[in-house]
Amino acid sequence: MWVPPDAGWFLSSLFMAAIQPPNGTRDFYPEEALRRRYITEAWRATSLRHGFEEIDGPTFEHLDLYTVKSGEGIVSELFSFERFGGEKKFALRPEFTPTLARMYAAKAASLPKPTKWFMAGPFFRAERPQRGRLREFLQWNCDILGLDVEWGATGTPAANTPTAPIASSTDTSRSEPWEILKSKARADAEVIACCIELLKKMGLDSSRVRIKLNHRWLTESLLLYAGVGERKLGEWFTLIDRIPKLSEPDYLELALRIGSNEPTARIVRQAIKDSQRNPSGFNEVDPDLLHTWLFAESLARSEIRTRNISENRWNEASRYVNRLRQELLHSGVHDWVDLDSSIVRGLAYYTGMVFEVIVDGERAVAGGGRYDNLIELFGGPSTPAVGFGMGDVVLSLVLKDKGLLPEGKELADLLDSPRCRASVRPDVFVISNGQPECDALVPTLLSQARARGLHARRSYKTTKKIAKLLADAAAQHARHAIIIETPESCTLKNLDTQTQESLSFAAALDRLAPSSR
């Protein structure tokens, strides 16, 4: 059979034209690549302004790194492979937390306390692609590992600190000192404020986006109160995490499958729905009122009166939530936050505060929480930690749907704007003179400086001596220091020239934020 000379080329061209990118991936032509860069540069700039330092790790890890945390069941969700010749099994990274824990554990003794790290890079999940969920995506992670007070080898703080009964979620007889609780609340507020700052820079506001926050001990108490056994809490967290996507029959079927009875399952579902009636805003939490808010309506309709609840755990979580509210108030972001007991984050390693960023009441853009036991799992010392992750897929869709994803000239201009730029050197180091009223102003001044595009940090050293705090600022290569002298005034010091002057807060910030920013 005669074949024209051009036939091979023609057939090859047809075949090549039919080749599509792998399912669940994206091609980035110049305009799409610029929009992706707009998001990643905004992530990086926001992280730097909040004092996080950039890290990264391999895009694939030993498979054991993921199974040790999540069990063998996670393998079906990963892109895993084995090198020809029988070498160890590997997996493309589906998240960064295990890599982060491994890296921190390897150098924990030499790292500052706390350590603030961020990264943004590609991740991979072998799941069914759908709107907002792809097999390859970018993710931004910010984490604070350790506390700004001393944490001993046995998980205890420095001696002689005032205490409040803050129990472990696995041992309700154990207490943590009040200074530890306050330190955790400060770190939790920092990561939440960083996340909110990014959302603001992208043009979103608290009318469109809510930070749904919970403490897992509150939901543990809800479950125990409703009659769920202690050993079933983990399975129930996984189920509660799925409630928004489940019909009532499907929910009841899964509840029965994990050993519940139908009346208890209905009580839990109703209590979760009742808790979501909390009005917008994050108001002071009274433990007794909160108890009524979560349970009264649901349980009043039920004949079940199980009282298998740890009042100690409930009160401790309430006390912590109130402290966190104060820290968020100091940072100026408390009006973005709602308390919501349906937010539990199904992953087993979370130990306390958890949150999700919800757009238009249904779409999760980011999520995270406190994981105080994970570093130990990877061979490191006992290290309290908190962090969050934000993917580019849902964020891009939200911005596009709301007309906030720039293009053309606007996009090019924004890539050169303060929204996407931040100094690697800290622009300003905020220091208190040691008076309580000045200490309270540090997070507020940090928030104001960052809102102006400044890279602002504070010292985590416990000393009150200004000379040592200034030395810490110099060691971190800060350009300036603001020393809060009174609730109205400060000293602005140039750490390069060693010159200083007394100014109001507004004047000092005006001096530090040139018009080119």
Short characterization:
Helices cover 40% and strands 17% of the residues. It is built from 18 helices and 16 strands.
What's the structural domain tally? Answer: 2
Number of beta strands: 16
- Helix count equals 18
General form: globular
Distance between the termini: 72 Å
Structural class: alpha+beta
What share of the residues does DSSP label as strand, in percent?
Answer: 15-25%
Ranges where pLDDT stays below 50 over 5 or more residues in a row are: 153-174, 292-309
Mean pLDDT: 84
CATH class descriptor name of the largest domain: Alpha Beta
Q: Can you summarize the main beta sheet?
A: 8 strands, mixed
Summarize the amount of helix as a percent range.
Answer: 40-55%
How is the largest sheet built, in terms of strand order? 1-5-6-11-10-9-7-8
Radius of gyration: 25 Å
CATH superfamily of the largest domain: Bira Bifunctional Protein, Domain 2
CATH architecture of the largest domain: 2-Layer Sandwich
CATH topology of the largest domain: BirA Bifunctional Protein, domain 2
